[in-house]
Amino acid sequence: MRTTSDLTLHVNGQRQQLRTDNRATLLDVLREELGLPGTKKGCDHGQCGACTVLLDGRRVNSCLILAVSVDAAAVTTVEGLNDGGGLHPVQEAFAAHDALQCGYCTPGQVCSAVGLLDELEQGWPSVLTSTGKVSVEDEIRERMSGNICRCGAYVNIVAAVAEAAGR
């Protein structure tokens, strides 16, 4: 029985070819095989969101996805969000609003916020959409609910995402 597979990923705009264990998660491949430590391993059960990356533009918990199942996919990690060396607008807003404390969850929070803004731009509904008029802050809280900050920086995170949404 074959225990490894050849895999091609497009990570942060770079084509990556590797041979990996069939049981390796996308998170482990990013961190251990490609040397991208920005994506964090928190709970390893898909409950905290620290491992959030963008997979073909959609936010996912990379600890729940086998790397071999996303062969040829485009993956964007927090390291790949900058444009030409500058910070992404979401990263700038997080810094401006001091939307972190220990910083462990921040890469996942930032990737999730980038995905959230894209969902809003495309008109994707959330569970709150059908309830009528909701505040921007409530919409952000709902859409970011899969990302946990154990330090409790939620007020500043919501403010940062709201600022980035307004840009």
TrEMBL record:
Pfam families: Fer2, Fer2_2
Keywords, comma-separated and alphabetical: 2Fe-2S, Iron, Iron-sulfur, Metal-binding, Oxidoreductase
GO molecular function annotations of the record: 2 iron, 2 sulfur cluster binding; metal ion binding; oxidoreductase activity, acting on the aldehyde or oxo group of donors
UniProt KW Metal-binding keyword: yes
Pathway: Alkaloid degradation; nicotine degradation
Residue ranges of every copy of the 2Fe-2S ferredoxin-type domain listed in the record: 5-81
PANTHER family: OXIDOREDUCTASE WITH IRON-SULFUR SUBUNIT, OXIDOREDUCTASE, IRON-SULPHUR BINDING SUBUNIT-RELATED-RELATED
Protein name: Aldehyde dehydrogenase iron-sulfur subunit
Organism: Dactylosporangium sucinum
